[in-house]
Amino acid sequence: MSEQVPLLEVRGLSVAYGAAPAVTRVSFELVKGKAVVVLGPNGAGKSSLARAITGLVKPSEGEVTLEGRDVTGLAAHKMARLGVGLVPEDRGIFRGLSVADNLRMAVRNGVPRNRRDAALDRVFELFPVLSERRKQIAGTLSGGEQQMLALARVLAGEARVLVVDEPSLGLAPQLVDRVYDALRKLRESGISLLLIEQFVERALGFADYACLLSHGRLVLQGPPAEVRDDILKSYLGREEESGHPIAPAPAPSGLAAGINLQTA
Amino acid sequence: MSAYIISGLVLGSIYAIAATGLVLTYKSSRIFNFGHGAIAFLIARIYYQLAQVYHWNTALAAFMSILVFAPLFGVFLWGFLFRHLTNASPTVRLVATIGLFVAIPAVAQLIFGYDPTLNTVGLAGANPKLFHVFGVVLNMDQVLVLLFAALVAGGMFVMIRFTTFGLLIRAVVDSATVSRLVGTDPQRVSMGAWALGSLLAGLAGVLLTPLVTLDVDSFNILVVASFAAVVLARMDNLLLSFVGGLVVGLVQQIVTKFIPSDSTFLKGVVPSIPFILLVIFLFVWGANRDTVGSRQQAMGVNPDAHQEEVVVRAGARPRAWWRGLTPVAVWGVILVLFIPLYMNSFWLGLFSEGLIIGTIFLSFTVLTGQAGIISLGQSTLAGVGAIAVGQFATAFGLPMLLAVILAGGCAALLGVLVAVISVRLGDLYVALTTLGMGLLLENMVYTIGRFDNFSIGVSVTPPKLGPIDFSGRTTFYFLVLAVFSILALGVFNLKRSSTGLELAAVRSDPVRATTLGIRPWRLKVFAFGVASFIAGVGGCMMAMYQFRALPENFVTTIGLVWFAVVATLGMRSIPAALFAGITFAVFPQVIADHLSQSWQTLPTALFGLGAIAVARHPDGVVAMHASQFRWVKRHVAMLFHRLRHAPEPATEVSVA
Which of B30, B112, B326, B636 is a good FRET partner for B250, with 20 to 30 A between their CA atoms? Predict the structure, then answer.
């Protein structure tokens, strides 16, 4: 498949909770096998964007298309069946169910019966630790293992697009490395990733394309190499050390407000 | 002894089957179905109709009623009602299922008629085969009960553990959101659970048919017995709820052995065992206060923590008292005041009764409207007031005013006691405790000879004040009006007071209210006390109206219908309580005057259906119509505005 054909396209998407706007007219596209990272401080609207794309909240305007098909506002379970998976901030696993049951739920929809065993085998090959713990209740896994399970769940379900909300939240640095290794493997297997992050350096080092959200608006976007300096210096107003989350940002001003690329 | 154990196991098995169905639906949708027993009744009634009126083959009748109609009815209820309640507040969910409790039996009677269902035959046919086990004679019906119970227990275990549907239910119970994320529609799973829950209710109902008379009251006992089992299981554990059902049945039968059959008081104990166990279980959970629910709610992760939206005018100065009186309310009150001048004494009496019930309904205005608590025991509290006024005024010869205040105090005391036990456990448990209390008192206190007085009650005469004798229809009407007005003013003032504001805050969000230094628990107990006092005084007035304090006029099921009426017509406002009271008294008479005898349960059915409809309009139909009225008014005003200002009116009128 040509890399130029966007798998998932988001055009002018807005989300509002009552009268409060969370996301305002955001547009970007996601190409097969690529990773787009959405950066931004707390409250910038990142999670709302993720939830609107995957159908957990209904967008107030704009549209989402998957391979040209309009999927705007489709219910979450229908999006999941179309191959758009979300790993939410709180990992999105069934804490009270065993690892094996979690994965059984994941392959139930979308994976034909005769391929389910193969799908599980592939998952266990990629995440051997889960294979050892398949009888264990998911809520008793360590944070890193839970994140692995969340990713494994999406992989087993043969998702084509994966939206991951802050995969490194609350994890020790070594575990974050392992999560990113896993994400890399997912991308290599052809899954398109939409990564929501606060860890700027690591996310920029990983992604093929970066967007910066501020107050619900897309204020910067481009290949990481091009936008890296702008994101770090202009937006934050200071050099950010690698591995640290972005500090809660002031209102966009100066350069950031000038470079409004949302219409691009 | 073995005879008691085996009959206990048979009864317990039926409770267990019902309880399992109840927990299954509660787990999958977080809706506690008070109408579970009503569904059991409906299915049993349909079975009776097919097997004994249409003379179908027993197996075919059982198949059609239990395996076809019951699941379909469950799916129907899901699609029509429960599906829409997913995001409703706990209060609204309770109101809806209490509506089912009231409406289903009434509708069933409308459909099937009022002929007594005699010689009900169970699944084993008219002459069940007899078996001898451990020296005890068992008939085929009882054996079938035990077999079905074993089948249900085993079947549920296998289903939950090993089948795909079981996995789906466990997954949806664990997290509805994650279920959606993996492509499973939680609503579909919930639909399946309702079908299965309804099937289990139907099975329990049909199995119960040969053991009791096929009437609503017997089935209410079934459902409350299964409530006890469900509470034992903390609404969560299917296996424990099953065991709980068995335990309740066993205790109930074994106690029979040790109770002398000639004691009137103790005769009331046996049917009360389920409620006694219910209260004991609640008490045990009450001692263990830090329930999972409250912790989760505090953490903000509990789906049940969805609270009613209440607009509290923050920072506003207290409004002058007359600002709350809308023109509609003023005209309503004036209208009511002048009604007696235009009516014959029969209708005047009905309006007096309506006003008295309106007085009792004021207790719902405080309790449910202001404190957000659902009590199903208001009729019991009114009954306690009536019984007490009979004792104080007639037996002890106290002055009427003092007797009424003391009687209200008795009701308040009981209300506070119930509140102390249950309020901390949460809304659902309050509803269950008040229901259990009502049934308990009904069996054990109402039947005491001193109160019951050979089913004619203790006589109560309206008081005299100087030359005015309130026994006359018109004078009594004005007495009732005065009592209503005084209590209404009290309720109105409570609403405007800082306590009222705190109540509104607690209703809106208990956790945040706590952070403001409000103690929700104390406040709710206080509201319970006030509401119970009002209900007790209402009960006194009812006793005066009937010239006697007859406990059986205050049975629990009446209280449930009352609740449905208030829920339908509005919980929040005083005019709504008045309107609801008068409707409850007058509407059945209007039906009786204009429709044949076969429509006699129509009012009850409508009240129940009204409560169900409220699931969509939580403020009641008065508020609903008020908002429609405002809508019409606004649009008419807009139309006139446009007509006046539009340069070319002809093209603009189409806006309307």
Answer: B30
Tokens (6 digits) for B489: 């003013």
Cα–Cα distance, B36 to B82 (Å, whole number): 13
Do the chains contact at A97 and B171, CB–CB below 8 Å?
Answer: yes
Eight-state DSSP code of residue B395 = I
pTM score of the predicted model: 0.81
Nearest to B421 by CA among B556, B521, B518, B531: B521
Q: If you average pLDDT over residues B83-111, what whole number do you get?
A: 86
Q: Which domain holds residue B512?
A: 366-554
Tens-place pLDDT, residues A207-247: 999 998 888 888 888 888 888 888 876 555 544 444 444 44
Alpha carbon distance, N-terminus to C-terminus of chain B: 78
DSSP class of residue B122 equals -
Contact B274, B252 (CB under 8 A): yes
**B174, A94: Cβ pair inside 8 Å?**
yes
pLDDT band per the 50, 70, 90 thresholds, residue A18: confident
Task: List the structure tokens of B53.
Answer: 């009126």
Domain A1-83+160-173+190-264 top-level CATH class: alpha beta
B442 and B582 inside one domain: no
Asked if residue B223 and residue B201 are part of one domain, the reply reads yes
- The B residues from 161 to 200 touching A (CB cutoff 8 Å) are 164, 167-168, 170-171, 173-175, 177-186
Question: Do B131 and B137 meet the contact criterion of CB atoms below 8 Å apart?
Answer: yes
For chain B, what is the domain count?
3
Residue of B216, B13, B183, B264 whose CA lies nearest to B109:
B216
Chain A with chain B: Cβ pairs closer than 8 A: 71
pLDDT at residue B147, rounded to an integer: 94
Instruction: Kindly give, in sequence order, each residue whose CB lies less than 8 Å from that of residue B396, ignoring residues fewer than 6 positions away.
Output: B403
Give the pLDDT mean for B54-74: 93
Whether residue B513 contacts residue B308, with contact meaning beta carbons closer than 8 Å, is answered with no
pLDDT at B405 over 90: yes
Averaged pLDDT for residues B52-59: 89
Domain extent listing, chain A: 1-83+160-173+190-264, 94-158
Assess B217–A contact: CB distance below 8 Å, yes or no: no
Q: In whole angstroms, give the CA distance from residue B142 to residue B147.
A: 9
Are residues B97 and B31 in contact, defined by beta-carbon separation less than 8 angstroms?
yes
Q: Are residues B166 and B22 in the same domain?
A: yes
Distance from CA of B170 to the nearest CA of A (A): 7
Q: Looking at the structure, tell me whether residues B523 and B385 fall in a common domain.
A: yes
Report if residue B446 sits inside a domain: yes
**Average pLDDT rounded to a whole number, residues B49-68:** 92
pLDDT digits (tens, 9 = 90+) for B146-173: 999 999 999 999 998 889 899 999 998 8
Tens of pLDDT, residues A163-185: 998 888 878 888 888 888 888 88
The H or E element spanning position A35 is: strand A35-39
Are A81 and B183 a contacting pair at CB < 8 A?
yes
How far is Cα A50 from Cα A72, in angstroms, rounded to an integer?
Answer: 13
pLDDT average, residue stretch B242-255? 90
Given a cut of 70, whether residue B77 has pLDDT beyond it is: yes
Q: Taking CA B250 as the corner, what is the angle to CA B247 and CA B211, rounded to the nearest 5 degrees? A: 115
Contacts of A186 (CB under 8 A, 6+ apart): A151, A154, A155, A162, A193
Is the model's pLDDT at B262 over the cut of 90?
no
CB atoms within 10 A of CB B128: 18
Return phi, psi of residue B420, to 5°: -60, -40
Residue A80 CB neighbour total at 10 angstroms: 27
CA distances from B536 to A9, B495, B526 (A): 66, 20, 15
Exposed, middle or buried by CB within 10 Å (0-12, 13-18, 19+), for B234? middle
